[in-house]
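Morning!

This is the sequence you dropped in the shared folder:
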Amino acid sequence: MIERVLEAFFRHWVLVLLPLFAVPIDVTAWVFSTPPQYEAQAGVWVERATYLSSSTDELTRYLPPASVQRGRLMELLQTRSFANAVVSGTPLGDQAKTPEGAAEIDQIFARDFDAVQSGDHFLVIRFRSVDSATAVSVVNSVVDQFRSRLSDDRRVQAQLAISFYQSLLNDSQTALNAARTELSKYLSNNPRVAQTLTQNGIEVARLDPQFAELQGRVDTASRDADNARSSLQAAQLDVSAANKSDALGLQIVDPTSVSATPSRQLKKLLAYPIAGLLAGLVLSAGLLALFTLLDHSVRSMEDLATDAPILGIIPRFETRSLRVTGAHPTRRALASVAGAPLPGKRRAS
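The structure's back. Tokens below.
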């Protein structure tokens, strides 16, 4: 097998080595052909929202807030509405008016935008552009739009929580009033139980089974109403807190800054040529394997089919070891291997 691979390599070495050199050179040339860019970045502090506990995703409950918000931001940038809202107030806004421009904006965000998590609560939002003003405006717009989206979502969910807990409180209050009415009616119809309740307390009065059941209903309904009232107050407090800028869950701690001079990305300068080299190596290995599989030459008895007729076998030999000289060395060597004597030269007597 190694002999086949080596023979295929030396037979097609130009085609085999071409991807190994051509792909890295092309990738490197493409990297250096891209214009240098300015990089703008802003640092934001994120917190986990504390409204309506049932809205917490079980998959993200134990993840850091920065990781959750980063994933949410990257998903939002894949939507057309959020991307258009981001670029609407930037120099890229005119491109969003056409389908071709919108597709170009998607490529720009996929290539030049990044949100880097640094710790559990800190995010660094970065954007690169050939124009420093564009880079700064896009970073500011991303932060503003994302904060506005968080505020809107927080307010909507809090309003839903208020509506839900208000309905729950109304139902609990209705059940509590009904239970109290039944208990009062029972006490009025049973003066002895009411007298025991007044003289000896509720624990003695609970010895009456029907009174104990009615009192249990009142206690349960009262606890449900208290829990609903507490949850309603918490949701109302959250709505009030959501209107304050310091409780939106996303605060700018490092204002937007831009690099003083444009530069090319180090990742492209290093990672892309290395990736091109690996791709060229894979292509070269694939071509070598293909040439090896397409080579059907017969080099030994094992390469022949079992039903192939064999007319004869030419043995492998080296003329140096046989010390064959004179005319027709091949014929003389074959005769030597077959066992025939080598005819000598006739000398005239």
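Headline: The longest strand covers residues 38-46.

More detail when I'm at my desk.
O.
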